[in-house]
Design a protein that fits this description.
- By secondary structure, this protein is α/β, with parallel strands linked by helices.
- It has a single domain, classed as Alpha-Beta Barrel (TIM Barrel), CATH 3.20.20.
- The chain has seven helices and twelve strands.
- It has a ten-stranded mixed sheet with strand order 5-4-2-3-7-8-9-10-11-12, covered by helices on one side.
- Strand 7, helix 2 and strand 8 form a beta-alpha-beta unit.
- The protein is globular and about 50 Å long.
- Bound molecules: iron/sulfur cluster.
- The site of iron/sulfur cluster has 11 residues, from loops.
């Protein structure tokens, strides 16, 4: 029994990408990630730290890691209240880092969480995802292309997690983040594989957001051609940049 979670931060904001873009969410960012994406804008989440931060409207507070479940739930209630919201009405986006690193602890904590939950994951571990499915309302799955990773992990394919989600009743969608180094062949290969696993899958092509120290996305021509070239696959595909950097929100 863990009864605690290693966190980086919690905050309230507009969802910045994919199917729930623009909707208000509570965000719980867990600490720890085995991947190293070239486009990562949250490298602080890679490793566990002594403290985590709760970002309220007017101030940020620090708490010791790991966060005991009771304290975490109380601080999330406080966060919702700060925005005149309740956790029961809210959607909680669990993100990272890679949340499935702490699947055991999430499996323990989530049954007591009263609100809607969206899990954001790279989908590396199907068995861990399976244990969480009963407590989730939707899954946002990142399909990582090998050329977007600094160190290619052996188990980086989300294939089995897509299969699992396809068999479940749970709403899910797939994000493919594109850097300028992704080739047409690499992208097309991933989309073909996805279409085989999940025909008509809701698929978001997300150009990497330019920023200091990380990769930027391809040009518009590449994005348009990618859509047209792959239209016969039947995926519900759309290009969608991240909106939170445009809006200047967290
Ligand atoms: S999986 Fe997410 S947190 Fe981990 S390196 Fe990639 S973008 Fe960063």
């Amino acid at each position: 029994m863990n009864s605690s979670l290693q966190l980086m931060e919690a905050f309230c904001s507009l969802q910045g990408e994919a199917a729930e873009v623009g909707k208000p969410h509570l965000f719980l960012r867990l600490a720890g990630c085995p991947l190293r994406c070239h486009y990562c804008d949250t490298p602080k989440s890679w490793n566990r730290t002594e403290q985590w931060e709760l970002h309220l409207k007017e101030q940020s507070l620090q708490f010791q890691n790991p966060a005991p479940f009771g304290d975490l739930s109380a601080q999330l209630e406080r966060l919702a209240l700060d925005w005149n919201w309740t956790v029961e009405e809210s959607t909680l986006s669990i993100t990272g880092g890679e949340p499935l690193v702490q699947a055991d602890a999430l499996e323990e904590w989530l049954p007591a969480w009263p609100g809607r939950v969206v899990l954001e994951t790279a989908g590396l571990w199907p068995e861990r995802l399976r244990t969480l499915l009963p407590f989730l309302d939707a899954v946002s799955l990142d399909w990582k292309l090998a050329s977007t990773l600094r160190e290619t992990e052996e188990a980086v394919s989300p294939r089995e997690c897509v299969e699992l989600l396809q068999q479940s009743e749970l709403p899910f969608w797939v994000k493919v983040v594109l850097t300028e180094t992704v080739s047409e062949e690499e992208l097309d290969g991933a989309l073909q594989e996805l279409a085989q696993l999940s025909p008509q899958c809701r698929t978001f092509l997300i150009p990497a957001t330019p920023g200091p120290g990380h990769a930027s996305g391809p040009d518009t021509d590449f994005l348009l051609k990618a859509q047209l070239r792959n239209r016969a696959l039947g995926l519900k595909m759309q290009v969608m940049p991240q909106i939170h950097p445009i809006l200047g929100v967290r």
